[in-house]
């Protein structure tokens, strides 16, 4: 069974609108972390935001926020006031447990295209 | 500045050749990873290493080999046994001390078989 599910292969959004990218996860661990990365067409992976399983507040980083609903096991990325430069692939990832040198489990990604 | 350097950015391989992709980090991270990405797809783990002189196979290790003789370096060799090596290859590193930041990635190498 997939541990990270991104149900939106692609999305088109009008510039300046808010965008929500979906991510659901599956884990039996109590301690875990959730990440979002952006991959522009150039290929580099850019870290956007992190949410720990024990964090009570939703994470925010500038125009990015993570809508963390623990009971539903969802960690959706919200981009406010979208810009043309937000066009990219977006990946959700999960770190399970703690300990030396964890691995991230990756979703399949969502391709976001911002229309002018 | 600390980071991960992958080289070359573009690489062309003839059929039957082995090629080596370089990955160097100066972040003092213990763990390093190699991923393969096909167009429009997600990341697939090839190999990873948590300490020097030790590494483990990922999901698609066949046709690839790695070494970890130094903490800073984790080169990936794409051997002639890899039948479809054309892809984008990403190297990453991580540290338990900075686990809230996930992985740090290099800028990638695009490998094409000619």
How would you sum up this structure, described in words?
The complex is a heterodimer of chains A (116) and B (114). With 116 residues, chain A is an all-beta fold. Chain A is built from no helices and twelve strands. Helix content of chain A is 0%, strand content 51%. In chain A, the strands form three sheets. In chain A, strands 2, 5, 6, 10, 11 and 12 form a six-stranded mixed beta sheet that branches. With 114 residues, chain B is an all-beta fold. Chain B has no helices and eleven strands. In chain B, strands 2, 4, 5, 6, 9, 10 and 11 form a seven-stranded mixed beta sheet that branches. In chain B, strands 1-3-8-7 form a four-stranded antiparallel beta sheet, with no helix packed on it. The mean pLDDT of chain B is 93. At the A-B interface, strand 5, strand 6 and strand 10 of A face strand 5, strand 9 and strand 10 of B.
Summarize the SSE layout with pairings.
The complex is a heterodimer of chains A (116) and B (114).
Chain A: E1 4-5, E2 10-14, E3 19-21, E4 24-25, E5 32-39, E6 46-52, E7 60-61, E8 64-69, E9 74-79, E10 88-96, E11 104-106, E12 110-115
Parallel strand pairs in A: 2-12
Antiparallel strand pairs in A: 1-4, 3-9, 5-6, 5-10, 7-8, 8-9, 10-11, 10-12
Chain B: E1 4-7, E2 10-13, E3 19-25, E4 31-37, E5 43-51, E6 54-57, E7 64-66, E8 76-78, E9 87-94, E10 104-105, E11 109-113
Parallel strand pairs in B: 2-11
Antiparallel strand pairs in B: 1-3, 3-8, 4-5, 4-9, 5-6, 7-8, 9-10, 9-11
